[in-house]
Amino acid sequence: MSVKDLPAGSLKDRVRIEETTLLSDNWGKLTRYRFSLRRSDGEWQEQTREVYDRGHGAVLLAYDTARRHVLLTRQFRLPAYVCGHQEEMIEAPAGLLDKLDPETRIRAEVEEETGYRLGKVERLFAPFMSPGSVTEHLTFFIAPYSPDDRVSDGGGLEEEGEDIEVLDIAFDEAMAMVRDGRICDGKTILLLYHLALTVFRG
Questions:
Q1: For helices 171-180 and 186-198, what crossing angle results, to 10°?
Q2: Residues 164-184: pLDDT tens digits?
Q3: Per-residue pLDDT tens for 114-144?
Q4: What pTM was estimated for this model as a whole?
Q5: In this structure, are residues 94 and 60 in contact, taking their beta carbons and an 8 Å threshold?
Q6: Fewest Cβ atoms nearer than 10 Å: which of 9, 96, 115, 194?
Q7: What whole-number distance in Å separates Cα of residue 102 and Cα of residue 104?
Q8: Element (H or E) spanning 58, and its range?
């Protein structure tokens, strides 16, 4: 029987983990896996991959239909900087779950980063963001907001190294920033295009 004859989703019949080696256990865990994969022609092939486990996360983009605005943040991101990105990143508020459920965590994260306390939030989807090397899947949310929802200045937590600027900007300007590259964060682009298709149509 070839792999093509196996039922969909039967990876347990195609993958054998041969060896795991923990390379780093700091902020997240980096593990090297040696495994055998049964290819589509039925032959087994040994491969080695490194997998980074930093936990799962959540992200939320708040929108104001009355003013046609969205709520974003701007902050320094070291990985982007060492790749040559010379500007702070503009993003939707996001954070790791830290053993909380996604909705509880993202409500707290939005208030911590932006100073806004949200009412109803809507869960969209929870994709893997970089399945070739990272275990994280990210739960996406949207929520309405208004200027009256602000309860503090936000800005994040200094003890966590955060120094966050809050951006309450026009949706059309945010979309222009995607097109010209000022917004280059993948999760934020996904959420902005979701709003373009569902909330700010026309």
A1: 130
A2: 899 999 999 999 999 999 999
A3: 999 999 999 999 999 999 999 999 999 999 9
A4: 0.91
A5: yes
A6: 9
A7: 6
A8: strand 57-64
